[in-house]
Amino acid sequence: MTAVAGLKEIFTKNLRTSGIYIAFVAIVGLFTVLTDGMLLSPGNLTNIILQYSYILILAIGMVIVIIGGHIDLSVGSVVALTGATSAIVVIKHGQPWWVGILAALAVGLLVGVWQGFWVAYVGIPAFIVTLAGMLLFRGMTLQVLDNISLSPFPSEYQKVANGFLNGFLGGNGFDVFTLVIAGIALVGFAVSQFRTRQGRIRYKQTVEAMPLFITKLVLVAAVVMAFAYQLSKSRGLPIVLIILGVLIIAYTIITTKTVFGRHVYAIGGNLSAAQLSGVKVKQVNFWIFVNMGFLSAIAGVVYSSRSNGAQPSAGNMFELDAIAAAFIGGASTTGGVGRVTGAMIGALIMAVMTNGMSIMGIDQSVQQMVKGLVLLLAVAFDIFNKRRAGAAR
After folding, report:
1. What GO CC annotations are associated with the protein (predicted)?
2. How many domains does one find in the chain?
3. What's the pTM value of the predicted model, to 2 decimals?
């Protein structure tokens, strides 16, 4: 297979997956021009990571929920509740910062167990359970905080979302440590891609030609190192980016390499076939929501750390941003389709659009309309692809 033929097959085989990366590059390019380069400035790139990290974390869990054929409307309220729990433990009762984090994670897991039970074992649709959860956990947040905000957190807690790792290896005008970490990550990515390619060859699956494969790796390396260099010129490597990177790697492995991940796709793709194949549907659905509660708690810790406090209105509308990120990133409205990396790109598209429009001084109401249209077009594109595939068969 020639490089041209391989490239054509990649685009025709999965237009939605390929198109999202093209759309992301186009949107970044557009807003870079419209903001006179401010979008890609070192300080602004750092701010994008800090400001939208919790949405990226929520999008990881949300795409798994959607792949399984469900939806979760409660994650914003869970972010508020877990952040409030941490604030009560640390600020009000004077416990160490890490005790607050553990308390928040415990509450997130309990929320996941609660919602997973009603969805998996009672059989109530996730839409209803999580809609009830959105109201229930928001009310609990108001009760816990007594309708007032709590702040500030200790400096150690604030570093979760606002801290940086830098200066370990020196550098003149940039942080060498940030570039070294990026380089190590790229080596791991290249090895993983090569092993995946070899596995597909062993199973006689179609792979792109080696020149195209190398070109893809070089392009990824160039983009990542350029991004890392910009971060290194600002404040170095954000701690929250390390947390996010670990979560992305872990959940990519979970969804693509584990039995649980395959069962989630099977349930979302064809529930009857999954049941006939011996998939323990109730258990899988239960753990999908436990996992969502866990990730919502992490997002709650990050958000409360970023805002240096807990507010009754925290997490408002976060669930819509996470759902939009999953759908824009390639998840299907009917389940069974989606990827963690796609959800990350979808979340970054939302982040770049919001940040770019804010730099341009565009009114908040217009920003909401633009994001709504983007989500609508993403879902329309999903439906178009399904009809096109059905017609081809």
Report:
1. plasma membrane
2. 1
3. 0.91
Residues 6+ apart with CB under 8 A from 291: 61, 64, 112
- 303 within 8 A of 85, measured Cβ to Cβ: no
Cis status of the peptide bond prior to 152, with omega within 30 of 0 = yes
Phi-psi region of 236 (alpha: psi -120 to 50; beta: other; left: phi over 0): left
Contacts of 20 (CB under 8 A, 6+ apart): 328, 329, 330, 342, 345, 346, 349
The predicted pLDDT at position 311 comes to 94
Amino acid at 8: K
Tell me how far apart the alpha carbons of residues 154 and 308 are, in angstroms, rounded to a whole number. 9
What per-residue confidence (pLDDT) applies to 17? 54
Q: Domain range for residue 366?
A: 3-166+235-392
Alpha helices in 234-339 (DSSP H): 239-257, 259-269, 271-276, 281-307, 318-328
Look at residue 142 and tell me if it is in a domain: yes
Residue 88 resides in a domain = yes
The token pair that represents 367 in the structure block = 């920003």
Phi-psi region of 270 (alpha: psi -120 to 50; beta: other; left: phi over 0): beta
For residue 121, the 8-state DSSP code is I
Q: Cα–Cα distance between 40 and 56 in angstroms, integer? A: 19
- Domain assignment present for residue 184? The answer is no
Where residue 279 sits, what CATH number does that domain have? 1.10.3470
For residues 17 and 15, give the distance between their C-alpha atoms in angstroms, rounded to a whole number.
Answer: 6
Q: How far apart are the first and last CA of the chain?
A: 25
Judging by beta carbons within 10 Å of its beta carbon (0-12, 13-18, 19+), is residue 51 exposed, middle or buried? middle
Residue 213 lies in a domain: no
Q: Report how far residue 301's alpha carbon sits from residue 104's, in angstroms, rounded to the nearest whole number.
A: 7
CA distance 59 to 151: 27
Residue 342's nearest CA partner among 316, 367, 378 is 378
* Residues in the chain with pLDDT values less than 70: 1-18, 382, 385-386, 388-393
Helices 239-257 + 42-67 axis angle, to 10: 30
Q: Write the CA distances from 181 to 115, 241, 246, 338, integer angstroms.
A: 38, 11, 13, 28
Distance from C-alpha of 70 to C-alpha of 73, rounded to nearest angstrom: 10
The DSSP output letter for 149 is -
